[in-house]
Amino acid sequence: MKYVIWVLFIATMVSMFTGLIVELTYSKKLVGFGIIGLCVFVFPLFSYYRWKDKKVADYMLTQENLDKMREFNDSKDA
Known about the structure:
This protein is mainly alpha-helical and 78 residues long. The protein is 77% helix and 0% strand.
């Protein structure tokens, strides 16, 4: 999965930079396809790859997590 993301990222970057640097009749399309590929394929795959084994509850502000933060801050101050 990691290598697929890298290949897609490099392909979209090459497409965008080729469209910006080389004067072709379809240069704007290359830039557009690069941006669409980055937003539609690369970013969601990267997000899924990084979050697939994490518990979302650890990153939410629940009452339990707020209590843990308060206890941690109180122990630092003392």
